[in-house]
Amino acid sequence: MKNVISDQRLAKQLVKILPVKNRNQKSGGSGLVTNRIPAIKSALLLLVFSMVAFINQQSFAQTQPSGNGTTIKDWQNIYDSNLELVVSYSVAKCNNVNQISLKILNKKTISRNAKFKLDVIDIKSGLRFSKELNVALLKSQELKGDCSAGALKIVLPTNYDAANLYVVATF
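RE: above sequence
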């Protein structure tokens, strides 16, 4: 409803700024109406495109994991070094198993190894486990785990609450 109101206000403002024939001039028939038709068409097109853009923005809010899975928690940054490396994780249910998928981006223009320890903590129960990773990255390469990728996915123990995890990377 809020968008409809703002769209109505937009349409009223557009009508105010549309070119209007000088009232002191004598009109020759329907000149005033024909001068406004292209402007009205443009205003309507603008209105339609803004509504379509809003609908599309809402429908792509959450990404689906590749393969056969359902996203539980969308991508979250764990580590972001402005010049070197970005590490992110997401939590998904793949083939009825909860897992963490990792995404690692090498921002450097040289190949390197990303060696770090990942701590996974269940916030509700306080349970935790760690996993050490050593990932070889080419220059400017991004690797992304999903339901089918073995190296960048971590299967969660069954007693962990997949929606309430805290993940930390230590380099």
